[in-house]
Structure formats: structure tokens, C-alpha cells
Amino acid sequence: MVWYFFRRLIFSVRAGALVRRIAWLSLVSITVSVTAFLIVIFVMGGMNESIQKRILALEPHLTLTQKTADRVRLAEVLALLSPLKNDYPGMRSSAFETQDVILRTLDGKFRGAVARGKSKESFEDFIDQLNQLQRQNEFGSAAEIWNSSDVPGTGEIVMGIDLARSLELLEGEYITVIPPEGLILAPGEAPPFEKVRIKKIISTNLADVDAQFVFYQKGRALNNFTKSASRQTGVEWWLPDGYKADQLKNKILKSLDETQKNNFLVETWQERNGALFYALRLEKLMIGIFLALAGLVAGTSILTVLALLMSQKKRDIALLMTLGMSKVKTSQLFTKMGLCLSGTGVGLGLILGTAISYYIQENPINALPQIYYDSRIPAQVDLWVLLGVLIVGGVVAFLGSWVPARTALQIEPSQALRQKN
Fold this sequence. Notes:
By secondary structure, the protein is of the alpha+beta class. The protein is built from 15 helices and eleven strands.
């Protein structure tokens, strides 16, 4: 019966042109709002997931950095932590060193950077992961951008593409590396420096890495800076499941005493990129709020449809009451009619939004210009988001239908039948 009255009173010729047009506009606007909300949220989720996967592939999942030298030996701490390897089969570890440097080109351009020394094995893993990511971006291309056996050798470095562009450098060119404290030396005193060759310019699609980092093989370059004030050494760990880094960190902290905790910094990949992840969450939240408000405005059009319908069909409602339908039953009838209208819009929006998002998830669109780090548009369908949209949409639809339908309780059949249309 509800569906019969829904078709006859809203979408039929008898409903009136105004009610019919507003009903169609309401249905289309709800569908478009829900579809747009789901597509944008799922695309942003896919982009966030893509960034996390790239970070997990290219950055160590956990690092232990020695903050002060000669107070606690790194080897002693590593010996203390060696039993933890049994808890994580497949876990890899490697020593690293990092320091701030100043890069000077042959034509006099300067730029600050972070130099990171890696072992040969760590370099090979880094190259393999970078090649895998590159092949994924090229939709299955088998071409490698870098031979994993061709790691930088003596006096050679690898540089991020944005850093190279800012200094107008090409592969094979030479560059002078200077420690930061060399800028505060007395006049006439020459700072320590080292001239290195750029063996490879890489693009990782990670802004910080491409714009700030240079990499070299530990012990094969920048050996003149062993006493640099910014130089730090440590160990990096790679886990089979990078999301267990927090669990490993807690175990490491429990194994260290207070003196060791004060002299070593333990960081997970989430903590090192905390500012980035916070910005991504905030961006997704704000865009989601504005799109949800737009959908809420579209959903309130149900009020207009039912209010017009109730005002124009008072005589029909009075006839229903005269035939024996109670005021409560009449109110429930029009509430269900509003739910049919809004539910159809929400349902179509869920189907269209999910279908389009699933298609983008399986077939990422390579449509963004090259100015972006990743030119693909990915998506990640989240069933919890679908459930949330369904629940919130149902609540808004019910309220938007129930509020105007309550006017049926105020209609007196005898007075409504005496009125002329």
C-alpha cells in the first residue's frame, strides 16, 4: 500500500507538477550527494593507503638512533636486543648513519640536505622495493629503473629528484659536500669537505625523501665527517608486517634500562611521519564534513516534498481518515512514503558510489599531471564507511519524513472535506 500511494501521490500526473519536479530533484540530489561523498572519501583513503605502502616499502619500520656518543656502546645494546629476532621471523636489521650536510655545486649553488649512509644489503633491498613500486605505477612494466647490484661505490651518492632539480644537477656530475659547522669557522680556516659523484637521481614519490635526502654506501663515502656534530649512528629494522613496529618498539623499551633509554631514540615509521599522517587525516576529515553537510542539505529537500504534499492533499488525507484510517496510521503512511523517496536516493548513491570506487580500486586512473608525486588516482573501499553512510542516511531520512508527516495528526476530516481545493 505504501508503494502504491508513493507512486500515485508523488510521481503520478495526479500529484501535480510542482510536487513531482521537486521530488525528482530531491531524488537526484540525494543520489549525487551520496555518490560524490563515497567516491571522494574512498579516493582519499586510497591515496593515504598508497602513501603508507610507499613509506613501508622504502623507509625502515623501526630505527634505534644513538643520541650521544661514547656513553653507551651500540654493540652492547644490539647484543641485548638480539633475542627479539626470534619473535619476528624474517626480520632484517642493518646499521646506518645520518648527518646534516651542505651541498655546493661547481657553479656556486648551495642547498642543505640530510645524508644517510646505508649498508650494501640495505641498499639492495631499497633498490628492489623502489623497482617494484615503479613497476606497479607503470601497470606491470618489467623494466627496472635501477640495477639492484649497481649500488653507489667509493665517492658516489644517490640523490632525490627534487633536490637535484633545485640544484640543477644531472647524473654523473660532481658536487662538494660540507658539514654545517664549516660555516662558522674562523675566516681563513678551510672547512672539511668531500667531493662526490652523483651516480643516480631517484624518484620515490615521497616528498621528504626526494627533496632532502642523499644516500651513500656506509664506509665508502663521506668518511671525512666522522666527527661532525650532527652525525648519528644507529640500527634500522624491517619487519614482515610493518604495522607491528609499535609492538617491537615496546619490547625494545622494556629491554633497555634508564641510562640506555636516555642515550637511544627508538622511533617507528608512524612516528617519523606523524605530521604527514595527521595532515592527511585532517584533510580527509574536513572534506568529509563539507561533503556530508552538502548531502544533509540535499536530504532536507524531503521536508519540502512532504510539506507540499501534505498541504495539497488534505482532502485526500481526510478521505482516508473517513474510510477508517487513524491519524497515527496516516502519519506512518506518509513517513514511509518519505522513507521510500530518501531511501531510493541513498540506495542508488550507495550502489553508484561503491561501484565506481571498486572500479577505480581495481583500475587506478592515471590522470593527474606530472607535477604530483603520484599521477594515479587510487581508491580503497571501506565497508565501515558504507555502514556509517547507511546508518546516518537512514536517520536523516527518517527525521526528514517524520517531521512533516506529523501534520497529519492535526488534520480534522470534517473541516478538510468542507474546504475547496
